[in-house]
Design goal:
The complex is a heterodimer of chains A (255) and B (354).
Chain A (H helix, E strand, L loop, with lengths): L1 H7 L2 E3 L2 E3 L5 H8 L1 H35 L2 H11 L7 H12 L4 H8 L13 H26 L2 H9 L4 H29 L3 H6 L7 H12 L2 H30 L1
Antiparallel strand pairs in A: 1-2
Helix pairs in contact in A: 1-12, 2-3, 3-7, 3-9, 3-11, 7-9, 8-9, 9-12, 11-12
Chain B lengths: L1 H26 L2 E7 L6 H11 L1 E7 L3 H9 L8 E5 L3 H6 L23 H4 E2 L2 E2 L2 E13 L5 H4 L14 E4 L2 H11 L12 H11 L3 E5 L1 H9 L5 E5 L1 H4 L9 E4 L5 E10 L6 H11 L2 H8 L7 E2 L8 H6 L5 H6 L1 E3 L5 H16 L1
Parallel strand pairs in B: 1-2, 1-3, 7-8, 7-9, 11-13
Antiparallel strand pairs in B: 3-11, 4-5, 6-9, 6-10, 6-11, 6-12
Helix pairs in contact in B: 8-15
Classes of the chains: A mainly alpha (255), B alpha/beta (354).
Chain lengths: 255, 354
Amino acid sequence: MGMVIAYSLFRRVGGTIDTSPSLYNYRRIFNEPVFLDALQNSLEVVLITVVVSILVAYPFAYILAYRVSPRWQRPLLLLAVLPFWTSYVVRSYSWLLVLAKNGVVNGMMQTTGLTSDPVSLANTRLATVIGFVHFFTMLVSLTIYASLTQIPESYRKAARDLGASAPMTFLRVTLPLSMPGVVVGAFLTFVLAIGDFITPQILGGGQELLLPQAIMLQVQRRGDFPLAAALSVLLLLIVIAVYAVSAKRLTLEQK
Amino acid sequence: MKTHRRFAQLIGMLMALMLIAAACGEGTPTELNALVWCDHTDPALLQPFEEANNVTVNVKDYDGTGVALGLVEQSEPGDWDVFVIDSVDVPRVVEAGLLAELNPDDYPWDDFFADVDLPGTHYQNDKLYAVPEKFGYNTIAFNGDNVSVDAMRDVESLWDAEYDGRIAVYDYYIPVMEQVAISLGIKPSDLTVDDLPAIEQRLMDLKPHVTVIGDVVTTQTALATGEVDIIVGGGEFVTGVLNAENPAFDWILPNQGGIRWQQAIGVFADSEKQDMATKFVQYIVSPEGQARLATSSCYWAMPANSKATLTDAEKSILRWDEQDGFVGNSHPYFIPDGDLDAAMLDVWTRFLQG
């Protein structure tokens, strides 16, 4: 880590690295819109991913924890983690085929008359988000499920005995007590998605740059390791900030 | 008697050990470590050489010269024996002292296609350091079922509204920007920072027609799945391996010209297996090695050796008969100096983000 920070203070001049420390790379990042746009794109994509993943994962985890008999919980959990068993790259390319103009989704939409012409789904931001959500929903489901199963059943029963309706019991008892699982899942999703290069590269179609792509562009194409290091430090600072907020939230929950 | 028997047993054991040692020494295959582009990882290319020379060729593929140099930097001297590298990068690798001098008499120069020998590149200070082995073009690849080859012979077609949303761009700024420069009548080797605003404008005009910007696999997939019909910056290296699946996947060099890339192969200066490494280089540029390299499962491209034993069908996919015109009408990759390179990458980054 020290090396990355040190490198971020160097500067690529021509074909060599000038090791006199300076904030040149950081000035570039904050003065050139292209890097700030990359940051903004990353934050937008990742936040959408986190929100959608939670919205999809929570009902699944809830049903699994409270509506499925313990006998079936384990096999269903196993099914839930199946996407983890396939290669990340293969999975992304599979989505590309599914979302392509002559892919399954477009085929179904045309067959059912929803559209007459193929719709551009692959190589878009939507495709990137779908790829992320498919993967991270499973992760968030696990953390929320773990949290839900920790809540003693007596708490919910007590709420119902005291006259709370089912929705009120959920909002006032179950949801707050399951928040640690939600926060941990959201944090993990944020950290893994914001640093991910593969999914946006394969599914996004290169139509916009996300921060990891901007970093790789500097490394692969120009060998500008100092600028790539500075962008990586920025990424790290964002993750630390999100961790601090998440940790604070978890601490409050525990109190 | 007992002493004699023991002595005989000892002699027998010693002889057996010597025989085993001799057998091991003779049969143990040598290992060559080669740092290569992915086309050299094809077992169909390596196997004949390995079997003929009782050697194992360990290949490590890289996807950019910067990455390759990083790998070399992290290695111990002597770790690597053979280096496959873009011809344009040979001078800087030689300057870094990485390549060993080669004997020109070891290679079939008379059989190489005209103009691919690039003496100013492969020779430094009148000494040979790398041998040309494969070349191709960063030009226009397309689906012949949906796009006519005649239209693609005119690079201006790319800006036609007809191709809106049907274009993918290979994500390597140097050849693509140089191709755009050619469309503006600028020779790549004459490029300056002052030309970049016009090139950027031209790129931004192209962007609305572009659906995908990505690496070889991404653009290939886009073509194969019907997502796009044209790949700017593509060429035989994109469509060659897809031809068996769909013969409509084709490529062309526009009449205005295009960019020619070349690969070369050399021996690491610190290699302790210079002889075997040289033998491997000779195999790669031999007619048999060249045919296998040209049709490698990773990507196809023209062999540097015109005597490569390719079939007529393979030659047709590579547009063999048009090569004389293509080589003459193409410009070798021009590697910009540091400042121009940085300015070009900035333009490209804005194009990606635009």
